[in-house]
Fold this protein.
Amino acid sequence: MLDIASRRSIEALVAAAGAIGPVIGLVHAAGVSPSMASPEIIPRVDLYGTTVLLETFGAVIAPGGAGGVIASQSGHRLGALTAKEDAALALPPSEAPLSLPLLAPDKITGSLHAYQLSKRANVLRVKGEAPRCGKRGARINAISPGIVITPLARNELSGPHAAYYNRMIESSPVGRAGTPDEVGAMEGMLMGSDGAFINRQ
């Protein structure tokens, strides 16, 4: 079992994958939602875990390989950050992101804010990692879906933020939530030959 908030656990996963053969693909979708965890836990799982995973897999991904991170449109609902904050989230030393001033406990207003910051960081981190992947002949992209009916979303739709999430579904241009298969199809395109010209999105 993988502990996405543990560097040791992630490194063991990468070593196990490399022992099987060249690492040609990675899709990262692990995370916790605002109703599932505290403002202290969410950045450890959703932000730190993603940073370490991308750094570790990015060092071994094979030429022609591709990676994908399932982020969230919630990260785009966060207000604008400063250029310095964006840069700090995009290219932090892997052990440093949780010590950034904007992630200090007194700066995070609650679990939803922690989640939005973490998902914004995921997208920025992919943009920061893409040039390194490109030098290896590989690609990395992020997807930021709206509400997708997964166990995590069901938890949110029955939790303290239920009204907020239902309003998001109602105001969606397609008028409904998405499905895991729809997200999987998009990720499959990005990972495959049809997405070979797409990197750093």
Q: What stands out?
A: The domain at 34-195 is CATH 3.40.50.720 (Rossmann fold).
